[in-house]
Amino acid sequence: MNLNPPNIMPPNVCIFCGGDGPFSSEEHIIPHSLGNDLLILAPGWICDNCNNTCSSFESRTLNNSILGLERCRLGVVTKKGKPARSDVHHISWFAEPESRQNIVSAEADWANIPMLLHPDGDSGKIVFPFHDDFCYDITKLLLKIGIEVLTPTLGGDNSINHIDMKSAKNHILGKDDAPWPYFVLMSESVEKHLISFLHSMPEEHEYIRSCGFDLFFHVIEDHIVLFFFYGQFRAAISLSSRKSEWRKVLIDWGISHIGCPIEFVDLSA
Ligand SMILES: [Zn+2]
Predict the structure, then answer these.
(1) How far is the CA of 18 from the centre of ligand 1 (A)?
(2) What range does the domain containing 116 cover?
């Protein structure tokens, strides 16, 4: 399946750098490795250089972040037919596609992994730091997904076409490295306030939900905010600027949230 924007020819001008190519490949808006084979841009939207830039933070996210671990939990199989794997905080996690969801296997030098063992000795918890350097890669991935969905459709929607995503593009391309916040949402009830980007296409919507993800856009004053769900990972990010005053809507909705990367943790209370 391929959901190219209807009736819109690729501009052959890169949506990130404004360059004129070359354009030799199609672009998976959400990485193929997360299970997406629906949301794809044809060649002519993202130049090869920008595609390479995106691939590097995408692969760090998939191989080392909490999103990679979630990918294993969802039982994703790679293009080569192998169970997904992610190395997070010195533990290698492996999907178990033959089992039901929520089953993963893990390998590590366990003597060096901090664990909270139950007094019965048979069970325990592994403790992870919530923030790490891969949060910076997750920011870029979220911005990339939002821009790649919106840019081809911006012209037709007057409610959002005044919104400038230049700063987000510069951040993705590494021209501006000041941290950019996203918020991890701790409650699934956020969904009742949102309308999926694919709500008018029920078949496609059902399909991406079955792959584990969903996308929502919400305009909050001068911000267009992407809400991205992947399994149990739910995050929101402004595509308009680093400012975070839009998150008052999360407070109004009663959605507890945690600011990432660590610079933004103080905003989260
Ligand atoms: Zn480019």
Answers:
(1) 6
(2) 71-126
85 and 176 assigned to the same domain: no
Are the CB atoms for 230 and 261 separated by under 8 Å?
no
Instruction: Report the C-alpha gap between 171 and 167 in whole angstroms.
Output: 6
Q: Does 154 map to a domain? A: yes
The residue type found at 123 is: S
Q: Write out the residues surrounding ion ligand 1, Cβ under 5 A.
A: 14, 16-17, 19, 47, 50
Q: Are 149 and 196 in contact (CB under 8 A)?
A: no
Counted domains in the chain = 2
Question: Distance from the CA of 71 to the center of ligand 1, in angstroms?
Answer: 28
Output the CA 47–ligand 1 centroid distance in Å.
4
24 is a domain residue:
no
The CA 245 to ligand 1 mean position distance, Å, reads 30
Same domain, 78 and 148: no
pLDDT in tens, 103-142: 999 999 988 888 888 888 788 888 888 899 999 999 999 9
Do both 79 and 188 map to the same domain? no
What is the CA(17)–ligand 1 centre distance, in A?
Answer: 4
What pTM was computed for the model? 0.92
